[in-house]
């Protein structure tokens, strides 16, 4: 079992920055990849970024590449998502999720159905 709790969402102006955290707990976390997804109203849940629990390597959706950074905080056992240059299109509920590390291919971790554990989400609203 893996438990995930997101924090750090809120209201931010366009062009601003925000940091989200996903606190993870449970056994054998080293056997998981942790990802961030987001879901805007009326849209499907979409992949944002993913990182193995080891922290070695990461992969991003094209829409956030060069603006968002996913990282592992070993001291706090969190996976953080630092978001910068935010736009209205980044408004969504952001979820962290965990998938068993069954593959070394990034393509195995891009779909919601590949994840077994989910947090409850945190709202990010970009508004002037």
Provide an overview of this structure.
This protein has 128 residues and is an all-beta fold. The protein has no helices and eleven strands. It has strands spanning 2-7, 10-12, 18-26, 32-39, 46-52, 59-60, 68-73, 78-83, 92-100, 117-118, 122-126. A hairpin with a 6-residue loop joins β5 and β6 (59-60). The mean pLDDT is 95.
Question: Which features does this protein show?
Answer:
7-stranded mixed beta sheet, 4-stranded antiparallel beta sheet, globular, 128 residues, mainly beta
How would you summarize the topology of this molecule?
Layout: E1 2-7, E2 10-12, E3 18-26, E4 32-39, E5 46-52, E6 59-60, E7 68-73, E8 78-83, E9 92-100, E10 117-118, E11 122-126
Parallel strand pairs: 2-11
Antiparallel strand pairs: 1-3, 3-8, 4-5, 4-9, 5-6, 7-8, 9-10, 9-11
Secondary structure: number of strands: 11
Q: What is the average per-residue confidence, as pLDDT, rounded to a whole number?
A: 95
Q: Return the structural class.
A: mainly beta
Number of helices: 0
Question: β content, as a range?
Answer: over 45%
Task: Choose one word for the global shape.
Answer: globular
How would a textbook summarize the main sheet?
A: 7 strands, mixed
Helix content: under 10%
Radius of gyration: 14 Å
Q: SSE order, as H and E?
A: EEEEEEEEEEE
Distance between the termini: 40 Å
The low-confidence parts are none
Q: Quick summary of this structure?
A:
The protein has no helices and 11 strands. With 128 residues, it is an all-beta fold.
